[in-house]
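re the bet — no i am not wrong, look at it urself. input seq straight from the record:
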Amino acid sequence: MLEIKNLRCGYDSKFFLQDIDFKVEDGELIGIIGPNGSGKTTLLRAITRILKPKAGTILLENRNIWHMHFKELARKVAVVSQRSEGAVMSVEEFILLGRIPYYKRFQLIESKKDLDTAKRCMILTDTLKVKDQLMGQISGGERQLALIARALTQEPMLLLLDEPTTHLDITHQVRILDLVRKLNKELGLTVIMVLHDLNLASEYCHRLILLNGGRIQKEGKPEEVMDYRIIEDVYKTVVVVKKNPISSRPYIFTVSEEDKKRKEIRN
């Protein structure tokens, strides 16, 4: 579905992402991880044409995204960003914005199909109950669900999420990622999401891409990437990696300075 070849891009004269090469197969759920400033959001911006590469190509279904009309790209790729504008809009009005790529010339109001699609996406994301409330009045978890609903109304084949669990409590983190997994499994939606929480990334993703300093440090299944030596090298902190007793996925435990000193004294 998606192939990135020799990607090099950044801001102004600084080329931050270097030699980025990877493929995403149809139906995969990919996690992009890495320390702050490693280039995770920059990569998503390149995939969505917000940031133009200085070198390399990004192919969607074997077509260069820069050769595609913007509306065509918006019908294939949807983005859930970290920020939600439209605080004075109702939730339904906000979600209906996702239908803009399908508007015909001179169309000013939503068609029946637009309204039906938005309703279906609100039911799927459990946002129908808040459809008449203002975006600025609902909770952070509900806003994140509204963002996902808006993205789904684009009827995309590829969904990109930029840190969808940031600032959410553990209940809403699990709720959001369970929904993403459901969309991936039941609708066959291909997903790429940036995650800070390594344990959530390990638990929910088929494959991980670990960025470090603008380059791919490691790519593979969670058990291949979540090696304590790799994590310690990239994040510069001591960790212990064990298996989740339920899922058998790798789980990372951090080690505090106090615990390290206590261990050294005992040894």
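see?? The chain has a mean pLDDT of 91. told u. also The first helix runs from residue 40 to 47. so pay up
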